[in-house]
Each structure stands twice: as structure tokens, then as C-alpha cells.
Amino acid sequence: MEKYEKLEKVGEGTYGKVYKARVAATGQLVALKKTRLEMDEEGIPPTALREISLLRLLSASLYVVRLLSVEQVTKPCGKTVLYLVFEFLDTDLKKFVDGFRKGPSPRPLPTQVVKSFLYQLCKGTAHCHGHGVLHRDLKPQNLLIDKEKGVLKIADLGLSRAFTVPMKSYTHEIVTLWYRAPEVLLGATHYSTGVDIWSIGCIFAEMVRKQALFPGDSELQQLLHIFRLLGTPNEEKWPGVCALRDWHDYPQWKPQHLSRAVPTLEPEGLDLLGVN
């Protein structure tokens, strides 16, 4: 990896550590993702192969982080480590929102910024879905921001997978808890693009509120947060919900108006956020 100078560790993705680095020959800043799994006699780990193939498929979009190259490094012990080289963006949406929430003069995110970031997030997600790919882990930490240009890009496709029609059975343990759709929390293994759309709604509300919409600390608490605001589902509103693996007799709450959770959001925004 002589061609790259590591500058600092900037995060940890689903499957590996991420470093800010500089290309020695050009000075260009890049992000290096070192995959957790080392290559063995069988070659590149399937998780890395999946992410590489998905990134190559999706990188045509302005709203998905661009994969620049893939590097193999052989360690002195003979093991080969895989690095993914991405374009570098200087922050993520969580840090960006925290900058408005914390400090001596907390203030709301400008409406135009919220609209722009939401638009870019929807465009990037639509691009993924249009190519048959679910992200499955959309959260503010996985949305990279170029502050100077006002650009948002979707990153960390470590949990992504191609989806098909009819839907296949997928794993239950996906998506950071606060952004996890109720069908997944209730144990559904057949799900589709709705899991990403739910995450987008949570992120939208968080940009306006400057704090998480449903900050549960367990799957049960997460469901209760959701039901308190949106109402406890039943077979009439959600056919088949009682047959889901983790369904129980939950407290019965009536739906609240979304303005209680996001009081500063204008009516058009509440309509967009609303669940039908």
C-alpha cells in the first residue's frame, strides 16, 4: 500500500475499518476500507465480493459513494488483505446534524438543506432499488456529506443484497435498531423496499428534530416507541401482522398526529412523512 498514506481512522463499517488516506502520487484524499476478513486459499470473502459487485453496479449514481479501486496487500505472514478505495467525503449526516444540535448556539437545520438531503437520499435509494438492491442499513452514519458542495451520498453497502420478485426469505438481524422497520422488528423474513423507505422516514424526522424519532434500546422498546406514536397495529390495519414470529399482545395505543413528534415540520412535510 505504498501508493497510499494513511492519515487517520475515520470509522468502522459493517465489515471493516475505514481510514482517511492520501494518494502519494497525486495528493488526492480517499477513504480506505480494510475488510475484516482476510483472504485465504478460497480467495476473496463472499461479503467483500458482494459489496464490490454492488458498488460497481451502483456507482453510476451521483448519490452513491464511488468505488475507485480494489487493492490486495500481502502481509509478511502470507495472508492477503483486501482494501476498497472510495472517494473521500469529509463528514456524515450524524456529525452534520450534531453540529446544529450541540455547541453554544443550537439551531435548526435550514429547511432547504433538509429538503436537499432528503431528495438526494431518495434519489440514491431509488437508484439502488431500480437495480434490484436493498441497502438494509440506512442511517445517518452511513450517509456521507460534502459540506462545501452540499452533496449527500449513500455509503456502507455491507448489508445490502439484491432482491427479487417474488421476495426471498432474508435475515432478520438487519438495520441499526433506531431505523429498523416494524416488520423486521416483528420477525418478518420476507420484506422488500419498504425497509429502506422506513429508514428514510426516520432519517427525515431526525434531520428536522435533531434527535432520533424512535430511540429504542431494545427491540421491544423500539416497537413500543413506534406503537405509541403510530398506534398499535391489528389485523384490520395490517393483515398478517399477528402471524409474524415475534408478535405478542402489545399495549393498545391510538395513533397520534405526527406534529407531536415533529412540531416544527410544515404541513407538506408532515404529509410526506405520514404513514398510510
Question: How would you describe what is shown here?
Answer:
With 276 residues, the chain is of the alpha+beta class. It has 2 domains: 4-87, Phosphorylase Kinase, domain 1 (2-Layer Sandwich), CATH 3.30.200.20; 91-273, Orthogonal Bundle (Transferase(Phosphotransferase), domain 1). Helix content is 29%, strand content 20%. It has 7 helices and 10 strands. The chain has helices at residues 46-58, 93-101, 111-130, 182-185, 194-209, 219-230, 267-273; strands at residues 4-12, 16-23, 29-35, 67-74, 80-87, 91-92, 133-134, 143-146, 151-154, 161-162. The chain has a 5-stranded antiparallel β-sheet with strand order 1-2-3-5-4, with helices on one face. A 3-stranded antiparallel β-sheet has the order 6-8-9. A two-stranded antiparallel sheet has the order 7-10. Strand 1 and strand 2 (16-23) form a beta hairpin. Helix 3 runs antiparallel to helix 5 (194-209). It starts with a strand and ends with a helix. The model is unreliable at 164-174 (pLDDT under 50). One of its GO terms (cellular component) is cytoplasm. One of its GO terms (biological process) is regulation of G2/M transition of mitotic cell cycle. GO terms for molecular function: ATP binding; cyclin binding; cyclin-dependent protein serine/threonine kinase activity; RNA polymerase II CTD heptapeptide repeat kinase activity.
